[in-house]
Amino acid sequence: MISNPVPWPNGARCAVAFTFDLDADSILHLRHHASADTRVAALSMLRYGPQVAMPRIVEIYRRFEMRQTFFLPAWCMERYPVAVEQILAGNHEVAHHGYLHEEPNTLAPDEELYWLNRATEVIVAATGERPRGFRAPAYQFSRTTLDHLVAEGFAYDASLMGDDVPYLLENGHGTVIELPSHIGLDDWPHFMTSRELDYRTTIKPPEQALAVYRAEFDAMWEHGGLWIAVWHPFLSGRLSRLTAMVELIEHMRDKGNVWFARLDEIAAHVASLVETRQWAPRIDRLPYYTGPIPELGEVEPARPD
What we know:
alpha/beta; TIM Barrel; five-stranded parallel β-sheet; five-stranded mixed β-sheet; 11 helices
């Protein structure tokens, strides 16, 4: 099913990463700048992530002896330093997720670069290291995001959904390793509902979401793929959902031959394989398009009923 599986370390059948995007209330301030401070119920829901869920998550990782990756908007690092301390104390990775969860494809290239660099400065100040990885907020990778990542020396991106194994993004000046996931492994469509953020999802029981996550893992384990969860502490950090997460980790461990790793570790392994010519990834040249496709001209086609 996977034509070019990655030779994972120590003969592992697949690689697994439980990544969390610690957005906290950045997304509410971005969406409702003038009134976010008055939306107290929504603020309490989002602040649950850094204040209540994070200690539970890092404790689960400690119990299972797992080191994982957290993507943080740098504004959240400034507002919730205790959560950052908890991540670093567990030897987990802090990766780049914008400054205030701004969406790159809504910005001019120079604005995108400004916020990218401003967030990097915060990460360096908090961790002592430049971030190795990036995930575009809301997956909104722009036509120029890769150019910025290459120029700023990022090793990997985790925003795209173009394969079941790592692949390379290339822009004519350099490459970045893409560590893909997909929307089925994101907890947002399973659990998110909010008037303030314009989501009306019918919330699933944890068992239903777990069935999706488990089926995706079983397929990756069978065929040698890469399983990356994209979760949020204020959603998946709730008690019943974290209980399901523990069950999922136990299922993975029972299957055996699973490499649980930080994303920077996975990227470093892939880079080593490429450098030593033990494995050759697929390459995507970006941008896919430089503007609207010419076949449709300048007229926006009518949408089908």
